[in-house]
Amino acid sequence: MMSTGVVTPRARTRFGRSRPWVHWKMEKELYVYRLLGRTEGLPTPSILWSDNSKELLPQNYVLMTTLQGQLLSHLAPSLSARELRDIYFQMGTLLAKVHGVTLEAFGYITIGVIASHPTNEAYMRSQFQKKLVEFDAYGGDPALRRTVEEYVETHNDLLTQARIPVLCHDDYHEGNVLVAEEEGKWRVTGIIDVENAVSADPLLDIAKTDYYAIRANEAKREGFLAGYGRLSMNWRERIQLYKLYHALELWDWFAPVGNKATVIRLTDDIRRFAAA
Q1: Among 8, 143, 168, 182, which residue carries the largest CB count within 10 Å?
Q2: pLDDT band at residue 174, thresholds of 50, 70 and 90?
Q3: For the chain, how many structural domains are there in total?
Q4: Are residues 114 and 187 in the same domain?
Q5: Considering the domain boundaries, does residue 221 fall inside one?
Q6: Considering the chain, what is the average pLDDT of its residues?
Q7: Residue 128 CB: number of other CB atoms within 10 A?
Q8: Which pLDDT does position 24 carry in this prediction?
Q9: Over 70: is that where the pLDDT of 45 sits?
Q10: Which domain, by its residues, includes 18?
Q11: Residue 120 and residue 254: Cα distance in Å, rounded?
Q12: Exposed e or buried b for every residue in 140-161, given b needs 16+ CB within 10 A?
């Protein structure tokens, strides 16, 4: 059994007095889980209570319903290709439901869309620029930066094709999906951790799942795409562009902590995606 419950040490770290500057993250989770709760058939926790008064406990807290299951990341290595295809089919179907939630603008989400942009092109060009500034600051290769900039410029038309901003989980991988075995079959029982959620092109979400979780596994990819359903025009090229963005974003995350092996791998990924 996996609980997304509250007043755990993790919750105290994220929402407690020791890090007051992240209190807004609790409000974001409340907002996003309530958005998801309006969509029938999504296995997300329900919010039972929240409190930021610190009258009962010395930190902010949220009380949620418990979700049954285990993290897919713990089980995936032991599952067959057929089992993984079935699970990823369910994951694709559920992500399509998430993307059924539309929002008023493109941008980052807290208790609404902040630093909003009227178009996906404006949002993603802003994000690429932000991540490239960080890439420079953390010692990224200037030549590779120029390659990325040129790739984005050359493929800018791909950013204009998403017209309606939708709710994107933006971290939809095996570490945030719960599964349980029922009558000999695996069922997705939970989608958790909405801290990264954005309002964006749905293909941004699909690209992250592909990059973080599917990678070269054809059983996962076949199941996921079949479950998600019809994709919009130029979806392969758009996913490639978004995978470049996710690799750059991840590079900016790992470079400051000195994880050299991961930074080298991500540099190779950025170079590969920008050369496609």
Answers
A1: 168
A2: very high
A3: 2
A4: yes
A5: yes
A6: 92
A7: 22
A8: 82
A9: yes
A10: 9-64
A11: 26
A12: beeebbeebeebbeebeebbeb
**Inside any domain, residue 148:** yes
25, 89: one domain? no
Q: Which helix (H) or strand (E) holds 14?
A: helix 9-15
Burial zone of 91 (CB within 10 Å; 0-12 exposed, 13-18 middle, 19+ buried): buried
* Rounded distance between C-alpha atoms, residue 212 and residue 116, angstroms: 26
Region of residue 247 (left: phi > 0; alpha: psi -120 to 50; beta: else): alpha
**Is the four-CA dihedral 162, 168, 171, 174 of positive or negative sign?**
negative
Mean pLDDT of 53-58: 89
pLDDT at residue 233 tops 90: no
Q: Does residue 2 sit within a domain? A: no
Q: Is residue 3 part of a domain?
A: no
Tell me the pLDDT tens digit for each residue of 187-213.
999 999 999 999 999 999 999 999 999
Q: Are residues 32 and 167 in the same domain?
A: no
Q: The domain that contains 201 carries what CATH number? A: 3.90.1200.10
Q: Which two tokens stand for residue 96?
A: 């399509």
CA 58, CA 52: separation in Å to the nearest integer? 9
Strands of the sheet containing 198-200, edge to edge, are 113-117, 106-109, 198-200, 166-168
Q: What is the pTM of this model?
A: 0.91
